[in-house]
From TrEMBL, chain A:
Membrane topology: Multi-pass membrane protein
GO terms for biological process, alphabetical: sodium ion transport
Primary location recorded for the protein, binned into one broad class: membrane
Entry superkingdom: Bacteria
Subcellular location: Endomembrane system
Protein name: Na+-transporting NADH:ubiquinone oxidoreductase subunit D
Alphabetical UniProt keywords: Cell inner membrane, Cell membrane, Ion transport, Membrane, NAD, Nitrogen fixation, Sodium, Sodium transport, Translocase, Transmembrane, Transmembrane helix, Transport, Ubiquinone
TrEMBL record, chain B:
InterPro entries linked to this entry: NqrB/RnfD (IPR004338)
Sequence intervals crossing the membrane: 12-28, 34-55, 62-86, 106-126, 133-161, 167-188, 200-221, 227-252
Name the record gives this protein: Na+-transporting NADH:ubiquinone oxidoreductase subunit B
Classification via Pfam families: NQR2_RnfD_RnfE (PF03116)
A Gene Ontology biological process term: transmembrane transport
Native organism: Tranquillimonas rosea
Keywords linked to the UniProt accession: Flavoprotein, FMN, Membrane, Phosphoprotein, Translocase, Transmembrane, Transmembrane helix, Transport, Ubiquinone
GO cellular component: plasma membrane
Highest taxon in the source lineage: Bacteria
Length: 221, 260
């Protein structure tokens, strides 16, 4: 964990170099579930970033008053209250998208990314750096979500934000959609390919091998 | 056994020899169309083997031909070059080459490709098999068992369940034929099937049971689709079955000797 005090580094580190989804593999269940279209992915990203930033600020503000033994309960109460507010806002103003997201907005409460950042960073830092770090992590999460959502909607439906980009065969065009892209496994594949690509470009992200292969022995003649 | 004779390529060659009767009968009945499918599959698989040789120094293997044959025989028809290429690339790269090449893969790359094509493009019809082509699976299995390349216990386990289900009238003939071809081409692969004797029996029996279950309960599924889905699940279960067989063996030894 980078312990830099430079706010710019704190903000930009989680985008690629310390990305919470591709490096720490946090919060992937929502990343898999809500990325069938770009609109839901963006909404989810915004909701999570807002919740994460506010929760980090609140937890950090009262960090000297939280008893250590019940700190998780306190953090979850704060996060859950914020999630309920966001959920109500979505239901009031974006009813369509709120229905598409179904339970996943509520499940931000248990998103390991939110709890991980409040537990690991906000509890030990002043409110402003904590909120910057949380915002950066939210942006990193959003980056992955938007990428996966864009690829899935583009190849699964030939659309972006609901606007037709590739005309479908059914409607007189030429593009046959990959219906696999709309199923959950494709998000796993895309995420795996993304992690693979990232770690090929930035080899310092890959873990040390857990096993050393045995020495290669030449076949006895 | 001569020392140094048995390496990965020997196994691949013998497996290829075992598949020859099946491939010849299929090509004879399929004509130029079948030849074109096989050519495309071989080309795509070979290119990926070449890419991984140049990028990761993974030795290419003759198993590329086996994978290509299985995909060409079982893939849905009328997919077109682009979709076939996509499906084959996905199966070969994600199913086999990223794990380090043939011999280190968890599932058969052909099974991965076929499942990808089946789930990704559900509108296309699966192929059927003429009787002579499906019967040619039997000499293929016999050659494989005689040379020790294909696990005999696995084939026997599947045959026992298949025979019992046929006698009980649970297995329609098209499903039986497709399941036989898929058993030889996809499941009886020495790399991804179970490796303990008990595990092999269970693996084969599980495949047979899954085929019976799917053909009875999966409405609207083509025979080959049933066989491919059963092969995918059965090969995913192979390590578990092996582990169960080992645990049983260790427990039996503990009971007999009082220690491990």
């Amino acid at each position: 964990m980078a312990r830099t005090t430079d706010p710019w580094r704190t903000l930009t580190d989680p985008l690629i170099r310390q990305n919470p989804v591709t490096l720490q593999i946090l919060g992937i269940c929502s990343a898999l579930a809500v990325t069938t279209t770009l609109a839901t992915a963006v909404t989810m990203s915004v909701a999570l970033t807002v919740v994460l930033t506010l929760a980090a600020g609140l937890v950090s503000a009262i960090r000297r008053h939280i008893p250590d033994t019940i700190r998780l309960i306190v953090q979850i109460v704060i996060v859950a209250s914020l999630v309920i507010v966001i959920d109500q806002v979505l239901q009031a103003y974006f009813a369509e998208i709120s229905r598409a997201l179904s339970v996943y907005v509520g499940l931000i409460t248990t998103n390991c990314l939110v709890l991980g950042r409040t537990e690991a960073y906000a509890r030990h830092h002043a409110p402003l750096p904590a909120m910057i770090d949380a915002f950066g992590n939210g942006l990193g999460y959003s980056l992955v979500l938007v990428f996966v959502g864009a690829v899935r909607e583009f190849f699964g439906k030939g659309e972006l934000f609901g606007a037709t980009v590739l005309p479908l065969v059914d409607e007189g065009g030429w593009f046959t959609p990959l219906s696999l892209m709309l199923l959950a496994p494709s998000a796993f594949f895309l995420l795996g390919l993304l992690v693979w690509a990232l770690r090929s470009v930035l080899p310092e992200q890959s873990e040390a091998p857990e096993h050393t292969p045995p020495l290669r022995t030449e076949p006895a003649e | 056994m001569i020392r140094g004779l048995w390496n990965r390529e020997t196994v691949a060659l013998l497996l290829l020899a075992a598949y020859l009767p099946l491939a010849l009968f299929w090509l004879r009945h399929g004509g130029t169309e079948a030849l074109a499918r096989l050519g495309l599959a071989v080309l795509v698989v070979a290119i990926w083997h070449l890419v991984f040789m140049l990028a990761r120094a993974q030795a290419p293997s003759l198993s590329a031909l086996i994978t290509a044959l299985a995909i060409a025989m079982l893939a849905p028809e009328g997919l077109g070059v682009f979709r076939m290429t996509l499906g084959i690339s996905f199966g070969v790269v994600m199913g086999e080459l990223v794990f380090g090449g043939w011999g280190r893969n968890v599932v058969n790359p052909a099974t991965v490709s076929l499942s990808f094509l089946g789930f990704g493009f559900p509108a296309f019809a699966w192929p059927g098999f003429d009787d002579p082509v499906a019967w040619a699976a039997i000499p293929a299995a016999l050659i494989g068992m005689a040379t020790g390349i294909m696990p005999a216990a696995l084939l026997a386990g599947a045959a026992v369940v298949g025979a019992a289900a046929s006698l009980a009238g649970l297995l329609p003939e098209p499903v039986l034929l497709a399941a036989g071809v898929a058993l030889v081409l996809l499941l009886a692969d020495p790399v991804t099937s179970a490796t303990t004797a008990l595990g092999r029996w269970l693996n084969g029996a599980l495949y047979g049971a899954l085929v019976v279950l799917f053909s009875a309960g999966w409405t609207g599924a083509a025979p080959v689709q049933v066989a491919v889905a059963a092969a995918l699940l059965a090969s995913l279960a192979a390590p578990l079955l092996d582990d169960a067989a080992l645990a049983l063996w260790i427990a039996a030894r503990k009971r007999r000797h009082g220690r491990t």
